[in-house]
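Revision sheet: structure tokens.
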Amino acid sequence: MSTNPLDRIQSYYDELTNKDKDIAVYIINNPRDAARSSIDALAKMAGASKSALVRFANRIGYSGFAELKYDLSRFLVSANSGTDEDHKDPVDAICDTYASYISQIKEMIDRTELDAIAQKLTSARRIKLFGFNRTFNSAMQMRQRLGKIGVDAEAVSDTTVMTDLEDVCRAGDCVIVFTVSDNAGIYNPIVTNLAENQCSVFCFTMSQALPFKKKCEKYIVLPRISRDSNISFLDDQAVFMVFIEILMNRIATLLSK
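Predicted:
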């Protein structure tokens, strides 16, 4: 991803729709307003809808508006300071980057969808949590957090077991898939069969459009910190962990009523 988001917008300009071009011109002319404003405020200032802003961000290569906003903020700070972020103290750089990405979560998730997922999980007959490699840590974390409030769930990392569960899970059951980008393509046939069996499938990911997106009852896209151009070794699981805590709060609130 370009270190200068304004140059990135310019490079895509000729490929954009007329509405996208209007948004592009506003952001190029008012980068500070775009970086500092909420998506609601920017939509009003740019004469666009929130969904149009999200689509615009997607078309120029971002996972969502929050990622574009973060990139703008980082670029403006770097430009104003006249310093190279690569020379920033590592402790400050890592803490600031995680704080920024975690802050993006609140803009990327729909509260209504979050409540709908929590409602389904509290009434589910069975809950299965799928994770592969590092995302299995997130599945295990959610299983443990659910267990502490009396909700039983099974975390699964073995693809053979996942395939077996395709024939077991039915309406009333919930499956959560944790995946950053599913580069191995393991989930598409599994999710397809689960959806055909009327099992509720929720995907928590960092990819805007996986092949099985339309098969999921809910599809939550979170910010992908490992894409950060300056600190590429940062792990995405911290973002998943924070999101789990947000979802657990909703679940615990429902169970306490």
